[in-house]
Amino acid sequence: MNNKGAPSQAPGSPAEPRARLPLRLGVLVSGRGSNLQAILDACRAGEVPGQVVVVVSSRPQAYALQRARFAGVPALVLAPGDFPSRQVYDAALADLLDAWGVDLVCLAGFVRILGPEFVRRFAGRILNVHPSLLPAFGGPGMYGDRVHQAVLRSGAKISGCTVHLVDETPDGGPIVLQAAVPVHDHDTVDTLAARVAEQEHRLYPLAIRLYALGRLAVRGRRVVVLDQAATGKKLAGSASVAGGGHPAAAVREGGRS
Asked: How many CA atoms lie within 13 A of 116 on its CB side?
């Protein structure tokens, strides 16, 4: 296996049949990978019933690749410049994730907008964390320090972070969890970003845990966190599953809007 392709079919390969848990996570990165580290740490500590089986970066120089390799996780590079179009890139990325048997795709500082075909292929199975309280300060071009700069320019008193399911609208998918962070008068981009990141590192693993346990139900534009006692009934009862019936997809309840 090289660092740009799918694994070969060998004993223990990620494409072998698997049980639903532990959830097989594929993490997409482009930068430092602090949220990737939070996910890796939570999986290792047993806080998330899952395993990061592959990390894919759009940038070969991303420090997140080193974090993955240090944790013993395959770290691959899929550079957009190596592909003739966005559609071809997205298809190759989707094929790669499928080859590794990924149940849930986690965007962790991935600075590319995924196209509609990719999103439909993994419908209900993509999470993203964004460094603001969406829908504020989101959308195309709003990522990383750009978000915090916009927050400070606006004079907003509260910022925060959001974990959401990904749909075809950038930063527009149903919100799973949010955490508020106060904006202080003396804040800089760096100080605000550091406090928001603390909440991201707490919130993202929690959202993945809830997803893995089948406790997220999508009702129209809302995501409801199901009680543990009700989860079995919800999953076995009238609820249908988003994402073409994939067993790990977030539950989308019928008859609600």
From this structure: 2
| CA–CA–CA angle 207, 211, 216 (5° rounding) | 95
Phi, psi of 75 (to 5 degrees): -120, 115
CB atoms within 10 A of CB 239: 18
Here the tokens at position 124 are 């209900």
Q: Which residue has the tokens 């395993």?
A: 51
Please state the separation of Cα 76 from the chain's center in Å. Answer: 17
Average pLDDT rounded to a whole number, residues 75-96: 97
pLDDT surpassing 50 at residue 14: no
DSSP 124: T
Residue 248: what residue type? A
Which residues are annotated as catalytic? 130
What does the block give as tokens for 147?
């978000």
Q: Residue 56 in contact with residue 27, Cβ under 8 Å?
A: yes
Question: Do 155 and 178 form a contact (C-beta atoms < 8 A)?
Answer: no
14-48 core/surface letters (b: 16 or more CB in 10 A; e: else) = beeeeeeebbbbbbbbbbbbbbbbbbbebbeeeeb
- How far is residue 227's CA from residue 246's CA, in Å, rounded to a whole number? 22
Q: 184 vs 12, 149, 191, 195, 217, CA distance in Å?
A: 51, 13, 9, 11, 35
Which runs of E-coded beta strand occur in the chain? 23-29, 50-57, 75-77, 104-107, 126-130, 158-165, 175-182, 216-219, 222-225, 240-241, 251-252
pLDDT attached to residue 235: 38
